[in-house]
């Protein structure tokens, strides 16, 4: 049974991904972490950034691009989006576990008069004017001792930016990478007037009578200082991209770990792949 919660003081995607990793691998508490990030796009672990977004456009607009350690689809975070992460001392989360986790959120929304449904694939939707709007996506990470179940909650997000930045630069790419599943989205503030990420957290904590988790700030800061810069580097963000093929200037390129390695099936001197070339 979840009895505690913690709200991250960080608003940087790489720091918060590190925080998730710290709580997963270095602690034994079962609790819910909440956090907010400044604008960023977050890939699932097995996705292709050029098929999900435009790394070039993100860079030009100073929007961070990150790759998380869980699977699932690509999401957009901003200050109007609240992220949750539920940690359990179980090496494998069952479907019942996952349903119970989401029920914590659904029961809170139910008492606020919002009708929600759990999607069969991933996430939750709310009903507005007879139309279902997705407000939450989810993904999972499992280790030998612990697991987490995390996701997004669109509360007052800039949906125009979400649409802009989740537009693929190169939809014609041939790849076995996991693809996202687009869905009509909506903010919970559309059905709960005045709701913000912070007020959601405060009301959720009160509704479930959750205590605030005590943490070791020194250990957290040390962990983040050592690891956050690694998550922001190309070895994680771009070079973990599964192999893909596309046509460029009448040539078929094979790209492996972010490097062009073949042209029309012939080995070439490796070079960084960039959508600027297209």
Structure notes:
- The protein is α+β, with helices and mostly antiparallel strands and 278 residues long.
- It folds into 2 domains: 4-237, BirA Bifunctional Protein, domain 2 (2-Layer Sandwich); 244-277, no CATH class.
- 28% of the residues lie in helices and 29% in strands.
- The chain contains 8 helices and 17 strands.
- The chain has helices spanning 13-26, 49-52, 55-60, 95-111, 159-165, 197-207, 217-231, 234-237; strands at residues 4-7, 31-35, 40-43, 64-67, 75-77, 81-88, 116-118, 124-128, 131-136, 138-142, 147-154, 174-175, 211-212, 244-248, 251-256, 259-263, 266-272.
- The longest helix is centred in the middle third of the chain and has 17 residues, at 95-111.
- The termini are far apart.
- The mean pLDDT is 94.
Please outline what is shown here.
Helix content is 28%, strand content 29%.
CATH class call of the largest domain: Alpha Beta
Please work out how many helical segments DSSP would assign.
Answer: 8
N- and C-termini, Cα separation: 52 Å
- Which spans have pLDDT < 50 for at least 5 consecutive residues? none
Elements, N to C (H/E): EHEEHHEEEHEEEEEHEHEHHEEEE
Supply the key terms:
278 residues, 2 domains, 6-stranded mixed β-sheet, 8 helices
